[in-house]
Write a structure and sequence with these properties.
The complex is a heterodimer of chains A (389) and B (299). With 389 residues, chain A is an alpha+beta fold. Chain A has helices spanning 12-21, 81-84, 123-137, 144-150, 169-172, 212-220, 228-243, 254-259, 266-273, 279-283, 329-348, 358-361, 369-380; strands at residues 4-8, 25-32, 35-40, 51-56, 59-64, 88-97, 103-108, 116-121, 154-158, 192-198, 203-209, 224-225, 290-296, 302-309, 319-320, 323-324. Chain A folds into two domains: 4-85 and 112-243, no CATH class; 254-380, no CATH class. In chain A, α9 (266-273) crosses α11. The N and C termini of chain A lie far apart (49 Å). Chain B has helices at 23-28, 42-48, 51-60, 90-102, 111-115, 127-134, 167-178, 190-197, 202-206, 222-225, 242-251, 256-263, 271-298, and strands at 31-36, 62-65, 78-84, 103-109, 158-160. Classes of the chains: A alpha+beta (389), B alpha/beta (299).
């Protein structure tokens, strides 16, 4: 849809209010304690205005930008993953009725609550949602809870202007400017795409329309008509952001590099650093593994089945009769990175990594997926050796 | 026979404080015993702190031996024994074997019972010296050179970590026991609980040292939820890489003495933490020796 609008920064409140009046719970970036996290947004004042972030291996700090940018940071501490795919949810509840001969009845739990509007979702995280659409909702057995939350969600993406040192979406082809459509389904990636333009005496958003619903909202809040030149401004912002990224994965070879690296000596090396703490998987916007936990009260009259995020870095993850199949940390790291960067493609037709850099930032040992992929590439002989320094 | 053998334990075989219980309901419920060894009683208090659930617990089990709560004693055997504290005396060794023999399921509760507790610091000390300094008549004292977990002496069915234990985990063990299922006691890291709760990683976002990556979950990530690093009171997780964590603690500016101390607190006797503290100490000694040698060479 070739429809470009201009939204003044002062119009953000009207946008949020319009979404709320349409019954959406608006979820977006907000400052909480030491980090920008994803939370409920009731007004523009909930957004982390004037805040940026510094991210690198095992370091995250919020910083003051010295300007009024609303979206002048890279990836929030957690992606929008928990919005549609919560860390823990009840699958069913059961109850024993003593008046009915002790009969046990089971009720399926269905997610309730208002439909979600994602505000300010980044290109990397938006791509991760599309990957989850494929993994959780695009196969013969769909995840009903995921679909229940995802269907009817409204997406206001915000193009990324300030990537962190941990970012590498440009190399993954997932950002910083989001694709107009989902490459798998052809559906619009977003209802609205905003690019923040911060000039000397001017602060506005270039608003690109993705869907009819997006156009309705734009009309309702009186976003003025823009020009093709405004899109050029927007593209210039993301082009500059892409050029500033310093980390990268060579996607032309990475699938085969991992295939060739099953017995690489690199795994011992990375396992000596890996804490097997699970942080990388739990901040990854695409990791979708869960476990099922049954709980009961003291009497056994009430029971619940919960689905909870799990991680291939925990020993219990691969536990079967007799013990875990991936006892060593090296086996677990190999499993994780091989799935992300290689077997995910065999399984789902796309890579499982969107380049958000969270696994690099939030690894307490500073393990860097781009560095590991590069080292494996060199050691497998599929990538050129590192230039002598 | 009674195995209530604490020095001041007054056994009252006929005292049955559950006056309103009829004998049939008392005998149909499984008997619960709560035992104490070298410990502060904090974990037993966690059971008493289950205020909302305490009546349900008392209805579901027959509290047969629990001196912290009641002087009434019902003789064994006991279907479920909860054991607090570590083994520090020859009498403890004898008593824990008697308790094991009288117990169906035996679960140990807390850092003392599962790792030797803070008192496991004696494992690095000269106990004879302590004894002579502290007591006027050390010859009256019978004590061991070490403080060891219950599982070093008898088979243990379940271990609940923590200083003190988490009351939700205690109730989980009771509920699982009563319903004939395995209790859910995760052995992964505290980081999992932080992420499930939506906590922001304390060491990454603030630079504070945190033992969370090497520590077993179970507390609900209590300290990191309040913006503080984890103190490791649940002991090592099943895949603890303390060597890597030690490097991170050094990088975050923690002096060697402090690193030794954080590994040697509530779970000093847990093998992974004991080895980590020994390694840091050995490195510090080596570094001091090489500094001394350098200075000696320079002068």
């Amino acid at each position: 849809m070739d429809d470009i609008r201009i939204l003044q920064a002062s119009g953000l409140d009207a946008l949020i209010e319009e979404l709320r009046s349409r019954g959406f719970r608006v979820v977006g970036p907000t400052l909480r304690g030491d980090a920008i996290v994803t939370g409920e947004i009731r007004a523009a004042s909930d957004l982390p205005r004037g805040k940026g972030d510094s991210q690198d291996a095992k370091t995250y700090r919020v910083r003051s930008r010295g300007d009024d940018a609303y979206f002048g940071f890279a990836a929030p501490a957690q992606s929008s993953k928990p919005v549609f795919f919560p860390a823990e949810e009840v699958v069913w509840r059961g109850h024993r009725d003593h008046d009915d001969d002790g009969h046990f009845t089971v009720e399926r739990d269905t997610p309730d609550g208002a439909p979600i509007a994602l505000l300010g979702v980044r290109s990397c995280d938006l791509r991760a949602v599309q990957i989850h659409d494929r993994v959780l909702a695009g196969r013969s057995h769909v995840d009903a809870h995921y679909v229940g939350r995802r269907d009817g969600a409204f997406v206001v993406a915000v193009a990324c202007s300030d990537p962190a040192a941990s970012c590498f979406c440009a190399s993954m082809g997932t950002g910083p400017r989001p694709a107009t459509t989902d490459p798998e389904t052809g559906a619009s990636s977003y209802d609205l795409l905003l690019t923040e333009i911060l000039g000397e005496d001017d602060h506005h958003f270039v608003m690109e329309i993705g869907t009819d619903a997006g156009r309705e909202v734009a009309d309702e809040i009186g976003a003025s008509m823009g020009h093709p030149a405004d899109r050029d401004d927007a593209v210039a912002v993301t082009d500059a952001a892409a050029a500033r990224q310093t980390r990268a994965i060579d996607t032309t070879i990475v699938h085969d590099v991992l295939r060739a690296s099953a017995e690489s000596p690199r795994w011992e090396d990375v396992a000596s650093r890996c804490l097997a703490c699970t942080n990388c998987t739990l901040v990854c916007p695409t990791c979708f593994c869960t476990t099922v936990q049954d709980v009961s009260d003291l009497t056994g009259d009430s029971a619940e089945r919960h689905r909870v995020w799990d991680s291939c870095f925990s020993e219990s993850f691969s536990y079967i009769h007799g013990g875990p199949t991936r006892e060593s940390t090296k086996a677990r790291y190999r499993q994780w990175i091989t799935h992300k960067l290689s077997s995910w493609e065999d399984q789902f037709g796309m890579l499982g990594c969107v380049g958000c850099g969270r696994c690099i930032t939030w690894c307490p040992a500073g393990i860097d997926i781009t560095e590991e992929a590069a080292a494996l590439g060199r050691m497998s002989g599929l990538a050129a050796p590192a230039p002598a320094t | 026979m009674s195995i209530a053998t604490e020095p001041h334990g007054v056994t009252e075989p006929h005292a049955h404080s559950h006056g309103h219980d009829d004998a049939a309901s008392a005998s149909s419920r499984p008997k619960l015993a709560v035992w104490k060894f070298a410990s502060c009683d904090g974990c037993q208090l966690s059971l008493l702190n289950c205020e909302d659930e305490l009546l349900s617990i008392a209805e579901a089990v027959h509290i047969a031996y629990f001196p912290e709560a009641t002087r009434a004693v019902v003789e064994g055997p006991y279907e479920l024994s909860l054991v607090e504290g570590s083994i520090t005396t020859p009498d403890d060794v004898r008593r824990i074997h008697e308790i094991r023999a009288q117990s169906g399921v035996l679960a140990t509760i807390g850092a003392c019972a599962t790792a030797g507790g803070i008192q496991a610091l004696r494992n690095w000390a000269d106990v004879d010296q302590y004894r002579s300094v502290v007591y006027a008549h050390p010859e009256y004292l019978k004590t061991l050179d070490t403080s060891t977990p219950i599982a070093s002496h008898v088979d243990v069915d379940y271990e609940l970590r923590g200083c003190p234990v988490d009351k939700k985990q205690l109730i989980e063990v009771l509920a699982a026991f009563l319903n004939g299922r395995k209790p859910r006691i995760p052995t992964y890291s505290v980081c999992v609980e932080c992420k499930l709760k939506g906590n922001v990683c304390v060491p990454v976002a603030t630079g504070q040292p945190c033992l969370g990556p090497v520590t077993q979950a179970g507390c609900g990530a209590l300290c990191p939820s309040y913006g503080r690093g984890c103190y490791g009171c649940f002991g090592p997780q099943d895949s603890a890489n303390t060597e890597s964590l030690t490097r991170q603690l050094v990088e975050l500016g923690m002096p060697s003495d402090d690193i030794v101390r954080v590994y040697r607190t509530f779970n000093a006797g847990a093998p992974a933490f004991a080895a980590a503290s020994d390694a840091v100490e050995a490195d510090a000694v080596e570094a001091a020796a090489s500094r001394a040698a350098e200075q000696g060479g320079a002068s």
